[in-house]
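Sample entry follows:

_____
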Amino acid sequence: MKNKSLILPLLALAIYILGGIGTFGGLALIIFMKGKDFYHWGDGRTVGYLFLFPGLCLSVFGVLLMRIARNRQ
């Protein structure tokens, strides 16, 4: 039973970390890859925006999941 109680907090932490990587990776692409091709996916700045906003959403979702996990008994 103890292992089942750790599933939600670990999932929340993983989502939060993934969101942070996406957010800061997107910011780096926006700042440093302006006008450059990013692995034939398109302009680095555009791909940066595609990483930035979902990364922010994942970070917020991870925080909300952690709050839910903390308040459960």
About this structure: The CA atoms of residues 3 and 10 lie 11 Å apart. The mean pLDDT is 89. Helices lie at 7-32, 44-71.
